[in-house]
Amino acid sequence: MRATTLLNRVLGLPDVRVIDVDPGTDDAAGPLLVRVALKARKRLDCPRCAFSTMAGYDTRWAESSWRHLDVSGRLVVLTMLRRRLVCHVHGVMV
């Protein structure tokens, strides 16, 4: 089984797929970096209102990162490129 498939099942993140895994150094003291991406054609929702759309505005090319639950005593950090949308009320939102 590939590492990305295993992490898809272990992390249990809906509507997200694991693209790449960076185990870090050999001493296992550093974080496990997991790069994820949204599955294709996911509906984007405005964070301030009930507006949703399938059309994206663009993708931010700066990676955002979040800490996930630890796996086997190792810190897990998720990173991804976030997509933006244009809300008719609030403008461009992440």
Describe the model:
This protein is mainly beta and 94 residues long. Helices cover 10% and strands 46% of the residues. The protein is built from 1 helix and 9 strands; from the N terminus they run αβββββββββ. It has one helix at residues 3-11; strands spanning 16-22, 32-38, 44-45, 52-53, 58-59, 64-71, 74-80, 83-87, 91-93. The chain has a 4-stranded mixed beta sheet with strand order 1-2-7-6, covered by helices on one side. Strands 5-8-9 form a 3-stranded antiparallel beta sheet, with no helix packed on it. Strands 3-4 form a two-stranded antiparallel sheet. A hairpin with a 3-residue loop joins β8 (83-87) and β9. The mean pLDDT is 84.
SSE layout and pairings?
Layout: H1 3-11, E1 16-22, E2 32-38, E3 44-45, E4 52-53, E5 58-59, E6 64-71, E7 74-80, E8 83-87, E9 91-93
Parallel strand pairs: 2-7
Antiparallel strand pairs: 1-2, 3-4, 5-8, 6-7, 8-9
